Amino acid sequence: METQGASNPWAGKKIFTTGEAALVCKVSQQTIIRCFDAGRLDGFRVPGSKFRRIPREELLRFMRQNGISTESLEGDRQRVLLIDDHAETINTTRQALERDGRFELRFSADAYEAGLLTLAFRPHAIVVDLGLAWIDVPGLCRRLRADPALKDIRLIVCRGVNTADRAIDAGVDGVISKPFAGDALLSRLVPMLGLDGDDESARNRRSRTAS
């Protein structure tokens, strides 16, 4: 059985030593220890010892905050943030991305949380419901494009009837009508993010998931 660990030694690892964190971040172990002791890198000490341990999500947060590439931890998975409050849309999106195997998904049904996730999760693509009353989608698009750190995020809007023109005018990268099938979303995300729509590894992942 093929596993992610065969190509990525850090795949699936949840807790890191300071030495492992140093290897991932490509800095010295002393740098990691200093950041840990100064509170810039959260974690815990092994009970009854002085050894420090760092959870994966905290290490990812630290790396993103300090401009360190997270590729060594995340491999080539594409990060997608879904901003929506409809259970059907959330479930459809989750199932489609998990089935494909090349994506990591976060979702939010709150404008404030969505903003925090955009900064912390650094998605490659955002999928947002244009009909949500609590978020200004055209304004979101303008803010993304104006921020050098976020300007390359791809933005797909989900629309109902008579909202396409507004979405396109906002400068988004793609539009999809609700309700949508998972394959319809993938047909937009895959080329938009420069992925191969029918590469062998993707077929193998889908085959393993289906079996």
- Please indicate the percent range of residues in DSSP E strands (runs of 2 or more): 15-25%
Please give the CATH architecture of the largest domain.
3-Layer(aba) Sandwich
Question: How would you describe the shape?
Answer: elongated
What do we call the CATH topology of the largest domain?
Rossmann fold
Structure overview:
By secondary structure, this protein is an alpha/beta fold. The chain has two domains: 4-73, Multidrug-efflux Transporter Regulator, Chain: A, Domain 2, CATH 1.10.1660; 76-210, Rossmann fold (3-Layer(aba) Sandwich). It has ten helices and eight strands. The strands form two sheets. The protein has a five-stranded parallel beta sheet with strand order 5-4-6-7-8, with helices on both faces. Strands 1-3-2 form a three-stranded antiparallel beta sheet. A hairpin with a 6-residue loop joins strand 2 (44-45) and strand 3. Helix 1 crosses helix 2 and helix 5 crosses helix 9 (182-192). The protein is elongated and about 55 Å long. It starts with 14 loop residues before the first strand and ends with a helix. Residues 1-6 and 199-211 have low confidence and may be disordered.
Defining traits:
single chain, 211 residues, alpha/beta, Rossmann fold, three-stranded antiparallel β-sheet, 10 helices, 17% strand, elongated, disordered N terminus
